[in-house]
Design a protein that fits this description.
The protein is mainly α. The chain is built from nine helices and no strands. Helix 7 packs parallel to helix 9. It is globular, with a radius of gyration of 18 Å. The model has no long low-confidence stretch (mean pLDDT 90).
Amino acid sequence: MNTFYQALILIVLGFIPSLIWLIYYLKKDCKPEPKSLIAKTVLVGMLVAPLAVVAQLIFVKIYTNINPGFQSSTSLVFLLWAAFVEEYVKYLAVKITVLRNLQFNEPTDAMIYLISASLGFAAVENILVLFQAIPDGLTAAIQIWLLRFAGATLLHAVSSALLGYFLGLSWFYWQHNRKIMAFGFIAATLSHYVFNISLLTANSRSMGFIYSSFALMVLVILISILFGRLRRRMAC
């Protein structure tokens, strides 16, 4: 296959999981946001993704100097740092794009826009992973694509949605917004972290898949409950 067309196919495949989950969550919004602003948020989520990579590389560089035998792929400290950085970068995309926009006028908007930014971020991550996997063959790349569709891409959406819930909650308790947002970052980071360690530290791939799927399912249910709570506060 021509290299150009192969690259194009991988890019399209990287976007598809994000697009499907974005459509799914946008349908849950009782007062839909402007499509142009959603698209802009997704785009900025993509553009800020390299910041997370840079922050992770800096951490690895510093930690390797301290401990020459450091392995980032198995380090729980690195996984926690990576989870926090990714959650912050996705929030940064929303802060840059819509946080002061007049269209950002309802508590549930926080969850919708954070999901949008996170899926832009996840699309870039998917594309990079697929390009890394394709040398192992098309079958391996498709298997990874399916796993990321049901796993990592959805994780990015729901962990950011969790932070979005606390951002929406601060709408009602603005005098405590810093404490609420701090708790939101902790909750989003830990949920992301738990998924990663349950996937990477299990005794086998199959057990890792079972553990991470269970953690993700719990988080999906939680987000559905929290989204409903914000909707009821808005009486819609």
